[in-house]
């Protein structure tokens, strides 16, 4: 990269160089993250809006880098997608989420559904279905205790193949949720064709509730539409009692967000369960 004017390397180039070096270094390290046991799952509680009852949790991956400390998925999942490492990482996440939830159920916790994020690239890998079957078979998790979260971006390239795959997943009794709803480009006609159990309303529409009346109208409409399509709704990123109260008046089914809990390491999640049960 050359700077546009002058003869030295500009600040811009230096920043670009640093970013590129950082990216390269992370992507090299990420190759060994799974085999070196550096990935962890945190679990964020999902509760019933009306009662506050714990109903499930979303598994969110973290990378414990030996030198850099904990790296957020927002930073390394894009790298994992670019490099194709997402397939191996995704397989680990799916297996670990199923293993942990099956272990909790064997320890006598009441049935909770664990939600696992799938990335677009992972969805295109042809053996996803057999990986799901393997995770279920190897861990013994009841299929109805697993939920998979997909995003609207996956709809874009080949909706028919996607719908076929989603149907196969759902026929097994696994739940499907549409994540980050409202931020993608999928049309309502797709939504109608999609075998989806649940819509997760993106935090972008929640954060200014209840003061922003446009957002109130949007969230109300999404909840009403979901009900008409026989889907349930989860509000993401709920941080305040006022947001929760508003969401209750419009009949949103479930709530996830810092108001109840941040994502928790497995031990802390167990403590949360015992306290709220
Ligand atoms: P997401 O699937 O939309 O997950 C929700 C994110 O919102 C999480 O960030 C969570 O910590 C954060 N969050 C939850 N409640 C609140 C709240 O009340 N306020 C605010 N400000 N934030 C809240 P996290 O854990 O950093 O994950 C970021 C993204 O990384 C996820 O967004 C998801 O797209 C991706 N990701 C995480 N784990 C995985 C994984 O195992 N596989 C794949 N493919 N992607 C993952
Ligand atoms: Ca998610
Ligand atoms: Ca989300
Ligand atoms: Ca998101």
TrEMBL record:
Top-level lineage group: Bacteria
Residues of the full protein shown: 473 to 749 of 749
Domain EAL: 23-277
Name this polypeptide is given: GGDEF domain-containing protein
